[in-house]
Amino acid sequence: MPVALVTGAAARVGAAIAETLHGQGFRVVIHCRNSRVDADALAAQLNGVRAASAAVVQGDLADLAALPALAAEARAHWGRLDALVNNASSYFRSPLAAVTPAQFNDLIGSNLAAPLFLSQACAAFDELRNIVNIVDVHARQPRAGYAPYFAAKAGLWTLTEALAAELAPRVRVNAVAPGHMIWATQPTLTPQQQDAELARIPLGRLGGAAQVAKAVGFLLSDAADYITGTVLPVDGGLRFG
Hints:
Layout: E1 3-6, H1 12-23, E2 27-32, H2 36-49, E3 54-58, H3 67-76, E4 83-86, H4 101-123, E5 130-134, H5 147-167, E6 172-178, H6 191-199, H7 209-219, E7 231-234
Parallel strand pairs: 1-2, 1-4, 2-3, 4-5, 5-6, 6-7
Helix pairs in contact: 1-7, 3-4, 4-5
C-alpha cells in the first residue's frame, strides 16, 4: 500500500488532500506545525475507516536543517514513502512599503525553500515516485500587495518544472494551481469585496478544498502516469478573469 506525506494537512485544503488520498488507498502521513490536536483527530478519523492507515508528524518546515529527519520520521511509520505533497503555505498581505525581512523569510521559506529541501530529503528514498506542489494560479500574474508570496509561488512553479526534468524518469513532479477555493481563516475582505472576487470567476463560485484534493489525487494516480512537469489550474477560469 503506497504512503503519502502531506504537509500542512491538519485542516482546510491539506486535510481534504489527506482524506482524498486515503480514499484512493494511500496510507497518509499528516504533517502539522502547531495544529497537533486537529492532526491527531484527522488521523483517528482515517484510522477508524481503515486501521493503521494514518499517522502524524509534527515539525516547523522553516527549520530546513531538520527536514531530512522529518522525512525519515514520516517514512519510518510504514518503511516507505511513495509520494510527497507540498501543501503547507504562509499567505498574508505584504505591501512593498511595509514588508519586513521576517515576513519575506516566512513567505519564501514556507512556499519555496521548504518544498525544495523536503523534496531533496524525500527523493533520497528509492521508492519515491511522485511529488505534487501546491502553487497559485496567479503565480505568473501577480496581484499588488503580495510580492514575496507571489515571488515564492512563481519560484515553486519553476521548481516543479526543474525537478521534473532532474528527477525523471523515476519521480514524476507536478503541481496544482488553485484559484479562489475557500476564504481565508481570518478574512480581510468585506462582503462586497468577496462578491467582487466571485464576479471575477467565470464559474461564479469558490472551488472548495475538495477540488484541489481531487486534482492532487489525479496527479498521483495511474491515470496521470505519463504526466510530469505540469501545473494544473483548478480555478474555475479565474486566470482569464
